[in-house]
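Dear Dr. H.,

I hope your travels went smoothly. While you were away I took the liberty of generating a structure for the chain from your last submission, since the lab meeting agenda had it listed for discussion. I wanted you to have the full record in hand beforehand rather than looking at slides cold. The sequence, exactly as received, is reproduced here:
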Amino acid sequence: MVILPYMVGTYPWGVVSDRYGRKVVLIVGYALTSVFMILFGFSSSFAWSIVWRTAMGLANGVLSTAKAQMAEVCAPEHLSRGYSIMTVGWSLGMILAPSIGGYLARPALQYPGLFAADSFFGVWPYALPTLVGGILGLLVCAFMYWCLPETLPNPTPIPGLTWLQDIGKDGRTRLTAQKEDAAAAAAATADPKAKDADTGAVKSVDDRPLTFLELISTRTALIVCLLYFCTSAVDVAFLEAAILWARLPRPEGGLALESADFGFISSVCGAINLAYQLVLFPSFERRFGALTVYRVGTLVPIAVHILYPRVPQLVPGLVDTVWGSRIVLLVLQVVFEINATNSFTSVFVMVSNATLTKDRGAMNGLGQAFASLSRIIAPIVTGSLFSLSLYSTSEPFDYHLIFYVMSLLALVTGGLTLMLDSSINAPLGDGKDGDDEKVDADDD
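The corresponding predicted structure, in token form, is as follows:
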């Protein structure tokens, strides 16, 4: 219930961040999400749970805005590392949060010695995990207020909320004031006879933000959003199809694996991918560029798609045991996940590079909306195709069908990249020195 409203809300939040600043959107969006999370724990009916989950999705424009701000915090050569760290944080949250929530949910049932059945948390069995999560979110909002600078140059002041926008009494944000004061000091000590090479020709830059139709009709922006959609769709489809196939009985072509087997594969694969993302990926992206790394991450997994359902025929003796099956699938899964890292993190970079700073929040919101749409469609299509394939016993219309479809989609995605050139590896110029828009670490 969160994905659909999130898809609807993420672009408007991006537009708001382009006009009023990143900081206010992050704080307000995260605070609203935290409050709605707490209220979700006190849902008295299924209908109310839908209401609060929908509100959480609509209020959460944090991820797309954070991606936009990351592109303003990091110099271009370090942007891939910044997105890698962001993705690692997201992944750790996805691993730890469900476990913590499971331990805190229904405390009166799990810990009867601490919580009576007629106590507050006995009456509201899911209030404890949502209270913990919501309070933690509000603490994060306080941390952002005190420590996070506004990175958008000259955001439009909101009457009564300039204190959330990091705007001082002089109408400037902290970082803008630091840059302008430093530039003024440098100009005061410069040789008055020196001529500024840029003063002879002033470039005309349209500061008006692009509308939705203007943005989506921009060729580069649309292609990059389609790449994001396809990458997300292939990722979701493979993870679902891999589990559905591996759980099939051996006489039906599967490996009859259980949940514990998938837990082992996912845990080991996650640890290897974590190391790759932090240590190796940023170096590869800096050397070869986001576009090339994305192409590799998109096309190499086609081999995994083809080999995965053929494991019993390729290594029949090795997969006769549970551990043999685990090891073979782990190798294939690691190859897939590492290349998924290549694809996702590279497309994050290309999304931020596809527009000027004035439209970066909207662009990240639009890309996130495309990805959310794929996460709605892909599971439905994957499950339906796999179910239909069980009625056939001849390749390619048997359980191989969904893997062929994923391979075809990956090929189409690779073909789309031919419509881009290496300029997507660098930020789109703003008619000014791009380095001036990056936040130097020493400014803090």
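Two observations you may find useful: The longest helix spans residues 322-353. DSSP finds 18 helices and no strands in the chain.

With kind regards,
E. W.
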